[in-house]
Design goal:
By secondary structure, the protein is an alpha/beta fold. The chain folds into two domains: about 1-120 and about 270-325, Medium-chain alcohol dehydrogenases, catalytic domain (Quinone Oxidoreductase, Chain A, domain 1, Alpha-Beta Complex), CATH 3.90.180.10; about 125-265, 3-Layer(aba) Sandwich (Rossmann fold), CATH 3.40.50.720. About 30% of the residues lie in helices and about 25% in strands. The protein contains eleven helices and 15 strands. The protein has helices at about 40-45, 115, 120-135, 150-165, 180-185, 200-205, 220-230, 250-255, 270-285, 285-290, 305-315; strands at about 1-5, 15-20, 30-40, 65-70, 85-90, 95-100, 105, 140-145, 170-175, 190, 210-215, 230-240, 260-265, 300-305, 320-325. Strands 3, 4, 5, 6, 7, 14 and 15 form a seven-stranded mixed beta sheet that branches. Strand 12, helix 8 and strand 13 (about 260-265) form a beta-alpha-beta unit. The radius of gyration is 20 Å and the shape is globular.
């Protein structure tokens, strides 16, 4: 089968189209004929040699796919050949075929295209897990979401507007993306280049109360302003450390304010745990995609052969929402 291969680690030039054996479903797995996949930030980190796949998973890039079930382990129930699905995968999404554990696919709503479905599993489930399950965001609360315009950020905004419409949203974004972020229904957009210490703007907006949930992928650089932005009993959910891994923390203030810092990753969770997350997402969020309340935001669709250009677009931060790789449709 055709797939994107890596000739070592490094820049986009290590990505090449090649031929590899077609995978076969192991116990508890299904084989998906991939129609589309999407680019995610961890793909770039893996390309650089700093994010290896979990043991037993494909070393081909790609964390989510949309396509059609082509084969399945005889012991798998609930799926059949020809079912249209979108699914998390531990790796292998940049290829014509990929295997997934049977508890990880979701049935594609008839209203969705394969390009749209390719955007859902990694970004939207990541946002759902960290904002709603771990962050416990509820109605009449306030959330601060970093990385305005990125796939997880826009997913978190759309999910929040659809699932807890009484919530107020604050987003940090680059000046080039602020207008587009605002059009998503965000209540306050902060230019992080002009306002690196965003905590004062947060306090002014919230009447010094602070926010209930923060979703952050920046890490060390943002720890102090994040903690200063949190309300009493607020939750900081950390999903990335792009600015570093070490920072000082005022433990006494954290204790007095009953705040929580929650570290979270999706890819390396046990298969059964990811299945439970997918099931909860299917129950609570998927109906919003089916009725088009939520429509995935796609910046551009590239053919698989233009994977280098797709990675370059993400590296240069020229996207808003998702970047899709189309395999075959």
């Amino acid at each position: 089968m055709k797939a994107v291969l890596m000739e070592g680690f490094g820049g986009v030039d290590v990505l090449k189209i090649g031929e590899v054996p077609k995978p076969q479903p192991a116990a508890g797995q299904v084989l998906i004929r991939v129609m589309a996949t999407s680019i995610n930030r961890p793909d770039l980190v893996q390309r650089g040699g700093k994010y290896p796949p979990p043991p037993g998973e494909s070393d081909i890039l790609g964390l989510e796919v949309a396509g059609v079930i082509d084969d399945l382990d005889p012991g798998v129930s609930g799926w059949k050949k020809g079912d249209r699905v979108m699914s998390l995968v531990g790796g292998g999404g940049y290829a014509e075929y990929a295997v997934a554990y049977a508890s990880h696919p979701m049935r594609m709503p008839d209203s969705m295209s394969f390009d749209e479905a390719a955007c859902v599993c990694e970004s939207y489930i990541t946002a759902f897990l960290n904002v709603f399950i771990l962050g416990e965001l509820g109605d009449n609360q306030i959330a601060l979401l970093h990385g305005g315009g990125g796939g997880v950020n826009t997913a978190a905004v759309q999910l929040s507007k659809a699932l807890v419409p009484a919530t107020k949203l604050i987003v940090t974004a680059s000046p080039e993306k602020m207008d587009r972020v605002k059009k998503l229904g965000v209540d306050l957009v902060i230019n992080y280049k002009e306002t690196p210490d965003f905590s004062e703007a947060v306090k002014n907006f919230t009447g010094k109360k602070g926010v209930d949930v923060i979703l952050d992928h920046i890490g060390a650089k943002y720890l102090e302003p994040n903690m200063n932005s949190l309300a009493y009993a607020g939750r900081l959910v950390l999903i990335g450390v792009t600015s570093g891994i070490k920072a000082e923390l005022n433990l006494a203030l954290m204790m007095v304010k009953r705040q929580r810092i929650i570290g979270s990753v999706l890819r390396s969770r046990p298969v059964s745990e990811k299945g439970e997350i997918v099931a909860e997402f299917t129950r609570r969020a998927l109906p919003k995609f089916a009725d088009r309340t939520i429509v995935p935001l796609i910046e551009k669709v590239f053919p698989l052969e233009e994977v280098q250009a797709a990675h370059r677009m993400m590296e240069e931060d020229r996207h808003f929402g998702k970047i899709v790789l189309r395999i075959a449709q």
